[in-house]
Amino acid sequence: MHLHAGYPARAQALAERNRDAFAGLALDALVYIASGCGAQLASYDELDGLGPLAPPPMDICAFLDMFDWPDDTRLTSMEGVVALHHPCTQRNQLRETEPARQVLARIPGLTLVDLPGNDLCCGAAGTYLLTQPQNADRLGRTKLEELRQSPARWLATSNTGCALHLGALARAAGLEVGIVHPVQLVHRQLRGRADTRDHE
């Protein structure tokens, strides 16, 4: 967020603090949840004197999909349509949009569709929703209209800013759709944890 807001020195200091926190740890994986954070972690080698993190940061969906899950993590069936939103950081910087689809495909009965216009920004764009709220809302409402015309009951996105922005617009528009991270749906369907609510 500091880089987006034009504070590179502060961003550098925070990156150095992260590097120091990870230094010396015997890590098998460095997992991130939000694609914006993942894009920043993956670009540490572009900051002054930092070098890349080791092990390389990995999206949580990609991490989960690496494994054969034991029987006690079987997922309960979930009927309905989930629209996948591909954040700009995930699509353009990290260049990985499949992990979320792959891990959600493990949920029996679920239908996955791409949100139309996935190649366009939702308007969150780092701090853009704060600095240019009217333009950000205009872009977000385009996404909501696509969502309104789809049969989706959920929108899955791996970017926190996108989720907050689109969620606020959806609530303001009275659109009854759950805006969730992909792993929230996986957690929801874990055997023994599924509930009867349609939306998170």
Short description:
The protein is α/β, with parallel strands linked by helices.
List its traits.
Rossmann fold, 200 residues, disordered C terminus, 4-stranded parallel β-sheet, 9 helices, flat, 6 strands, alpha/beta, 2 domains, two-stranded parallel sheet
Would you kindly provide a written description of the structure presented here, covering whatever features stand out?
- The chain has 200 residues and is α/β, with parallel strands linked by helices.
- It has 2 domains: 8-61, no CATH class; 71-188, Rossmann fold.
- Helix content is 42%, strand content 11%.
- It is built from 9 helices and 6 strands; from the N terminus they run αβαβαβααβααβαβα.
- The protein has helices at residues 8-22, 35-42, 60-65, 88-93, 98-104, 128-131, 133-148, 160-173, 182-188, and strands spanning 30-32, 57-59, 80-84, 110-114, 154-156, 178-180.
- The strands form 2 sheets. It has a 4-stranded parallel sheet, sandwiched between helices.
- Helix 5 runs parallel beside helix 9 (182-188) and helix 7 crosses helix 8.
- The longest helix has 16 residues, at 133-148.
- It is flat.
- The model is unreliable at 194-200 (pLDDT under 50).
